[in-house]
Design a protein that fits this description.
single chain; alpha/beta; Carbamate kinase; 8-stranded mixed beta sheet; 44% helix
């Protein structure tokens, strides 16, 4: 049995979508054609009997394009205002598209305080479990509108891994503007080699990470993705980093095809979400 064949059997899947994968590079506006493909892919996973959770970036990017702002705002209040406008628009489009495939989308907005506080964390887990039991598809984002430090702290790579750990997901797919993990930054080093499979994370791999993102709309570089890999694999989930340029890659990954970098689950016997959250600050 090929190692990637195990992905076909996954039951609860978290899919993280980066801002750059949802928007047109030239304008920063939503790429509706890509969103239609994304929703069709996710709806089909759901039709296969799998439970699907989406962690979607894009609220600030959508909000700023709606208001004619052609750069990433530096002021916290302006970023939060863009998030308030963009989150509503983004969710409206998700709901309309999922409804076309007879699926129900639900919105969950989280902050790091949701995770730090044990009572709210348990409540969030219960909400996720109930939504999935009801057959809904939760769409998660950070609550950038009201959190005083969430935009600076937060990135949806880490959030998606925490959601995977919280919900007991057995698969996490990170889709961004990169093909996967390389031995060096392929944008700067043409000799960088692609890494197909990571059986165990170590300090050598962490040292490869570049804490940068080439996108003008995203926040997460490779360092955040490796942090996410540590959390997800320790919690018992396999994880794939793949390019979100073509969302058809989702079904290809789930069919066990060779796309992206696969990080194998390395469940720790004494995995405590509290300890992970404490380290995140």
């Amino acid at each position: 049995m090929k190692v990637r064949d195990r992905l076909k059997e996954k039951k609860r899947i978290v899919v993280k979508i980066g801002s750059s994968s949802l928007t047109h590079e030239e304008t920063g506006r939503l790429n509706l054609m890509k969103m239609e493909i994304l929703v069709r892919e996710l709806a089909d996973l759901h039709n296969q009997g799998k439970e699907v959770i989406v962690v979607s970036s894009g609220a600030i990017a959508v909000g700023r394009s709606a208001m004619g702002i052609d750069h990433k705002p530096k002021e916290l209040a302006k970023r939060q205002a863009c998030a308030a406008i963009g989150q509503a628009r983004l969710m409206m489009i998700y709901q309309k598209l999922f409804a076309e495939y007879n699926q129900t989308a639900a919105q969950i907005l989280m902050t790091k305080y949701t995770m730090i506080n044990r009572a709210t964390r348990i409540n969030a887990k219960n909400t996720f479990d109930t939504l999935l039991e009801m057959g809904a598809i939760p769409i998660v984002n950070e609550n950038d509108t009201i959190s005083t430090d969430e935009i600076e702290f937060g990135d949806n790579d880490t959030l998606s891994a925490l959601v995977a750990a919280l919900t007991g997901a057995d698969m996490l797919i990170l889709l961004s503007d990169i093909d996967g993990l390389f031995t060096d930054d392929p944008n700067q080093n043409p000799n960088a080699e692609f890494i197909d499979l990571v059986e165990k994370l170590d300090s050598h791999l962490d040292a490869m990470a570049k804490d940068t993102s080439k996108s003008s709309v995203g926040t997460g570089g490779m360092a955040t993705k490796l942090k996410a890999a540590h959390i997800a694999t320790s919690a018992g989930a396999d994880m794939v980093i793949a390019n979100g340029n073509d969302f058809h890659v989702i079904h290809k990954i789930m069919q066990g095809r060779n796309h992206g970098t696969l990080f194998l689950a390395d469940k720790k016997e004494e995995f405590y979400l509290d300890d992970i959250i404490d380290k995140l600050g």
